[in-house]
Write a structure and sequence with these properties.
Length: 321
C-alpha cells in the first residue's frame, strides 16, 4: 500500500492551501513522517500525473453534456499574468491554465468547441465567437444584477437599472416556485407578462440615454458609457438574457463555475502567486480532480489516496460518455 503521507501532503497543499514548508512540518509533528518540502513538491507532481488521464475523461464528458458553466480568472505565475479557465456541470469540473484569456485559450481548452448544449457564462466576448455557433448561450443574471446596481448608484437618471434588477429577482422567484411545484415550464401568460415588463424597462433605459433600438443595432450609440453598453447587450442578446424564464433548465446564474475558480483566489491570498508553470498546471489538474470527486461524494483525501494507489476516482457521469 502506498504510504498515505503522500496523499496527506497533496491534500494539505492543494486542497487546504497550506504552504509547502508548513505541510512538511505538519506531517512531521502529527504523523512523525520525515518529509521535506522537496518531497511535498514531488508528491504534487506525481499526483498530477496520476490524475491527468482522469481529467481528460472528465473534459470529454463535460463537452458531451447537455449543459455546462464556463468562467475564467487571472492568476499570477511569478510576474506574469496567466488565466485559469473553468468548465463545470453539477457533477464534473475541469480547470486549465493558459497564457491568454480569449478565444485561443477557449479553443485550446477544447470543451466549448465540441459543446452544443446550454452554456452558462458572462458576457465575455470570446464566448460569443462565431466558432461556437452551435452553443445555446445562457447569460449569468447575477453578474448582470451587479452591473445594474452599479449603474443605479453611480449614474444619475438611471432608475430603470434599479427596476430591472428588481425584475430579475421577481422572475427568479417565479421560476424557482415553478420548479419546486414540479412544473416543466412557466405558464405562457406569465412568460408573456415577464417579457413585456423586460422590454418596457429596456425602453425606459433607452429613453434615459437618448437611444432607440436602431441606434444599438448599428452600434451608433455615440459616447460609450456603461449604461449604453449594457443596454446594447440587453437588446442584442435578449434571447440569452431571458432564456431562464422560457426554459426552466437554464440556470439563473453562473455560480457553478464561479465557485470552482474561487479556489484560485484563495491560493493567491496564501501564496501570492504560482512559482512555476508546472506548479500552476498541477494545481489546475488536481483541483479539477478533487472538485469532481467531492461533487460525487468522495472526499479529497480519499480521492488522492486512490490516485496514488493507481486507482484514480472516475465519476459514473464521465464513464457514460
Amino acid at each position: 500500500m502506498i504510504d498515505p503521507a503522500s496523499s496527506k501532503a497533496v491534500c494539505l497543499a492543494e486542497h487546504q492551501h497550506v504552504a509547502v514548508k508548513r505541510v512538511a512540518e505538519i506531517l512531521m509533528d502529527f504523523f512523525n513522517a520525515p518529509v521535506s518540502p522537496g518531497s511535498v513538491m514531488s508528491f504534487i507532481r506525481e499526483a498530477a500525473g496520476w490524475t491527468a488521464p482522469v481529467m481528460a475523461i472528465v473534459e470529454n464528458a463535460i463537452a458531451a453534456s447537455a449543459g455546462a458553466h464556463f468562467d475564467e480568472t487571472g492568476c499570477r505565475q511569478g510576474k506574469r499574468l496567466r488565466w485559469l479557465h473553468a468548465a463545470a456541470t453539477e457533477c464534473l469540473v475541469a480547470l486549465r491554465f493558459h497564457e491568454k484569456r480569449g478565444s485561443e485559450a477557449i479553443m485550446d481548452f477544447g470543451i466549448l468547441p465540441k459543446f452544443n448544449g446550454l452554456a452558462t457564462h458572462d458576457f465575455w466576448k470570446s464566448y460569443l465567437s462565431d466558432d461556437f455557433k452551435e452553443v445555446v448561450h445562457n447569460f449569468c443574471r447575477a453578474h448582470l444584477m451587479r452591473e445594474l446596481e452599479a449603474i443605479a448608484k453611480g449614474y444619475e437618471g438611471q432608475s430603470w437599472a434599479a427596476e430591472l434588477k428588481k425584475f430579475f429577482s421577481k422572475a427568479k422567484r417565479a421560476t424557482d416556485a415553478a420548479r419546486e411545484a414540479g412544473n416543466l415550464a412557466l405558464a405562457p401568460k406569465i412568460i408573456s407578462s415577464l417579457e413585456e415588463e423586460y422590454r418596457r424597462l429596456i425602453k425606459s433605459g433607452l429613453r434615459a440615454n437618448g437611444l432607440a433600438p436602431p441606434d444599438l443595432k448599428r452600434g451608433n450609440i455615440g459616447e460609450k458609457t456603461t449604461p449604453k453598453n449594457i443596454l446594447r447587450r440587453l437588446v442584442e442578446y435578449e434571447d440569452g438574457v431571458l432564456l431562464f424564464i422560457r426554459d426552466l433548465r437554464a440556470p439563473f446564474d453562473n455560480n457553478e463555475a464561479e465557485r470552482v475558480i474561487r479556489v484560485a483566489k484563495i491560493k493567491m491570498k496564501v501564496s501570492g502567486c504560482f512559482r512555476s508553470k508546472w506548479g500552476a498546471e498541477a494545481f489546475a489538474t488536481l483541483r479539477g480532480y478533487i472538485a469532481t470527486a467531492r461533487k460525487n461524494g468522495v472526499g479529497a483525501y480519499r480521492a488522492l489516496l486512490a490516485a496514488f494507489q493507481g486507482n484514480s476516482f472516475i465519476p459514473d457521469a464521465a464513464l457514460t460518455v
